Amino acid sequence: MDDLSVTLQFSGGAELLFDNKKLHVVQLKSKEWTIADLLIWIKENLLKERPELFLQDKSVRPGILVLVNDVDWELLNTVNYKIQPNDRIVFISTLHGG
Amino acid sequence: MCSVNDAGDIEDLNNTGLLSNFKYKVLAEKCNKCKDEKPCVILRKKDAYCKSCFLTSTVHKFKALLGKHKLIKDGDKVLVYYHGGHSGTALLHFLRTNLDLNSPKKLRFIPVCLFIEKHYFLSREERIDNLRRIFNYMRTFDIPIYFTSLTDYCKNGFSENTLLTKNFEELELDNKEGEFMKDLFEKSESLANDVQTINIRKLLISCAKKLKCKFIFTPELATDIASQLLVNTALGRGSHIPLDTGFCDTRNEHVTILRPLRVFDIKELALYNHFCNLDAIMLQTDLPKSQKSIQNLIENFVIDLQTNFPATVTTVLKTGDKLSMKKNKNENRICYICQSPIEVACQQLTTDEAIKYSHQISTQPELVGGDILKDNFGTVIDTKTCFSCSRIEQFLISTSTEKV
Amino acid sequence: MSECSRKCGSTAVLKRPKTGDKLCKECFFEAFENEIHFTITRAKLFRPGSTVAVAASGGKDSTVLAYVLKELNRKYKYNLKFILLSIDEGITGYRDDSLETVKQNRDDYEMPLKIMSYKDLYGWTMDEIVTEIGRKNNCTFCGVFRRQALDRGAHLLKVDYLATGHNADDIAETVLMNILRGDLARLSRCTSIITDSADGIPRVKPLKYAYEKEIVMYAYFKKLVYFSTECIFSPNAYRGHARVLLKDLEKINPSIIMNIIHSGESIKVNETSKMPTLQNCTRCGYVSSQDICKACILLEGLNTGEPKLGIGKSSKVKKSLENRAKTCCGGTSQCNSLSST
Q1: DSSP run (H or E) holding C115
Q2: Residue C117 and residue C140: Cα distance in Å, rounded?
Q3: Can you give the pTM of this predicted structure?
Q4: What share of chain C in percent tops pLDDT 70?
Q5: Residues C210, C306: one domain?
Q6: Residue C128 contacts by C-beta under 8 Å, 6 or more apart in sequence?
Q7: CATH number, residue C212
Q8: Primary place of residence (chain B) (predicted)?
Q9: What pLDDT sits at residue B2?
Q10: Are residue C144 and residue C104 in the same domain, yes or no?
Q11: A contact chains, 3+ CB pairs < 8 A
């Protein structure tokens, strides 16, 4: 199996937890990846600070929207979705101020 | 003891299932609207839409709400209260893409934006950074923006001469002015928040008048409205619910405040912004959200309850929509602090009287055995404040006298 | 050691949750009792010479209510006669003990006692109902039956008033709950201190402005006997949320309880909103917003092996009843429909 190439996008203030970088292209080691697995990977490799502001239990914190290729992850079984090569996963925070 | 004391709670038994047991309806195969495309968005756990239906229905919802009330005439100026976030950006985009004075199908009023600087808990650099970002952001929408300072307004005794400028650098951001507000917050967050809400409203109206705007748009979302309704209840402002949470706030005879986003939730607008490739500005937040204020407690309560019972917010909104202001046959005295009508007692014994009696009986033993019917226990006819603002009056007086 | 706020010279032993004043025991008793006297007098709750049924569950609210009413009646010469009215739902263990407490109240306060049981009124105990329908909707049955049982009891006793022990916390919680559920009809009525029953016996809430915490403290310091346990069957889910919210708000500032009651009193429902009109149940005569009252519907369901009949939206219930009416024998007592008690 090849490595899985995935584009991650953070916005709505979530980028503040990731070095203020909105776009991350990542390579995941070959295996079956679900979003649940990806979240663990993100925690260990990308999250620069305050994991509790992004993650909760095995999922994202309530108030963080997730889209896979512009489709609401609630239509894709949320954390159980199996990631495909070149998927674009967007995390939009609705928690930050205004 | 059993807590079911009134004719059973029958209808909402449908509502008692926890969402963890909730199964998404058929993991929607087709868009609810066009029944053709595959859905890419699901709202409130049950409404699935494809991208184009989602975008059109979101814009339609906005226009429909404005159209339903038919208040704004062609050419009227509207002050748009902007304070960042997804709601602010979506509102600006709705306006930008649907306004055209020359086109009969489009909205035909003139928007003007206002940003109220009130982040006295941030550092000077952070505050200027916020202002600069907003200034630049507004250029992309081609809508004029004005800036004003809340502390300035309060410090000047709510003067009409408070600075209102297009140039944000003219604002005075000396943190010392925030000291008074900080004291208030330390004493009672809930009351301080209430005071701040009232002052912001006053300032909005003052600026609208100066800019000759007949209307103000404020960006409250459905969750904000539901929270505000409960906050009003908890503060004793139940009688003001229609004004504080309805579509219109008509307390001022010259300027009407409208809440055009009250039917939306934040997920809708965040996704709308995303699909329109809009980057919302997230301002530096100031006060960390503590649980010590009624407002934060209730906001968290509503959000949590909504997660398990997705009909919560809409139900509370509907409750509010069915309430109206009491019409007093005699005069309509207005509270000088919040500009709302002062409640007129319509029962033999009011809560206000009961509270005043409690305070007195706890400190004056000589009242025992007195003629209760005759004694005037605080039903002051000449009162200048509503029930809730009388507490604010005492609060403000006691805080300022402590400072001296 | 603090001094009592009423400057009586004694040391304060408690801080009033309602006002924050520090009071000695005697001054607290006086303040607590006089507030209830104030409520009764100002709200004109009772006409002198009347008979009042006091809803007695054996719990703290009804025990304190009965005790204080008796005290105030004596002290301020209301000239009232009291009867304790208690409901036996037929829940083994729970009700047996609380009924013992009510009997104790009867003896201690020298008030006559009348016990109405679900078994007598409806033919079913709660234990039997739960066996039949399980624990999901049992609170619905109990709540509906209890309310009717109290009204029927008051009617039987031919009293002038029915006094219940609803306290400030209960009322505030009900306001919140009715907002959350969107129940405008109840929202507009729940803060009324006198609720007119269409059959003529008004229900009054003398403890409307008494804080639950103070009721507990009063009972404790006066060494009043009462019974307190949670009902063994599951409590209603939505009310639980309202209760948690109220308790959290109270922690921030106890005056919020009064604020909420004031808000409930001050709201006005649109004239155009659909509010149920009251009529009499065609089967048992009890007051209801429908042709057939909720109790009769629930009973019909129980008696015909379709216990879900009364549960759910009233529009669906109506439809279901209409379907049943098609099979009804038209009053010739040949079908299973409930006959009036």
Answers
A1: strand C113-117
A2: 17
A3: 0.89
A4: 84
A5: no
A6: C90
A7: 3.40.50.620
A8: cytoplasm
A9: 57
A10: yes
A11: B
* Domain around C293: 279-320
In 3D space, the residue among C299, C289, C297, C288 whose CA is nearest the CA of residue C317 turns out to be C297
Fold topology of B73-321: Rossmann fold (3.40.50)
- A18 near A24, Cβ under 8 Å? yes
Structure-token pair, residue C180: 């959350």
- C-facing residues of B in 8-47 (CB < 8 A) are 8-16
Residue B294 with chain C: CB contacts under 8 Å: 249, 252-253, 256
Closest chain C CA to residue B349: C43
Instruction: Note whether B32 and B48 are within 8 A (CB).
Output: yes
Whether residues B237 and C263 touch (CB distance < 8 A) is answered with yes
C6/B7 touch (CB, cutoff 8 Å), yes or no? no
The per-residue DSSP string of A21-87 comes to --EEEEEE-SS--BHHHHHHHHHHHT--S-GGGTEETTEEPTTEEEEETTEEGGGTTGGGPBPPTT-
Q: Which of residues 203-262 of B touch C (CB under 8 A)?
A: 229-230, 232-239, 241
Of B10, B365, B387, the CB nearest to C27: B365
* Nearest-CB residue to B348 (from C42, C142, C271): C42
CA C45 to chain centroid, in Å, comes to 17
**Domain-embedded: residue C156:** yes
Classify residue A24: in a domain, yes or no: yes
Task: Give which of B342, B148, B322, B325 is closest to B250, Cα–Cα.
Answer: B325
Please list the ranges in chain B whose pLDDT falls under 50: 1, 5-22, 25, 403-404
How crowded is the C-beta side of B44, counted as CA atoms within 13 Å?
13
Contact (CB<8Å) A97/B284: yes
- What CATH number does the domain containing A10 carry? 3.10.20.30
pLDDT band at C273 (very low <50, low <70, confident <90, very high): low
Scan for tokens 């009772």, then name that residue: C46
Whether residue C176 has pLDDT greater than 70 = yes
Q: Give pLDDT, residue A6.
A: 94
Structure tokens at C312: 């759910």
How close C335 gets to chain B, by Cα (Å)?
27
Q: How far is A40 from chain B (nearest CA, A)?
A: 22
| Among chain C residues, CA nearest to B347 | C43
Q: ipTM of this model?
A: 0.91
List of chains touching C (3+ CB pairs within 8 A):
B
Q: Which domain covers residue A37, as residue numbers? A: 4-93
Of B3, B14, B5, B20, whose CA–CA distance to C137 is shortest? B14
**In this predicted structure, what is the pLDDT of residue C152?**
84
Residue of B nearest to A63 (CA): B267
Can you give the residue ranges of every domain in chain B? 23-70, 73-321, 351-403
Say if residues C244 and B8 touch (Cβ distance below 8 Å): no
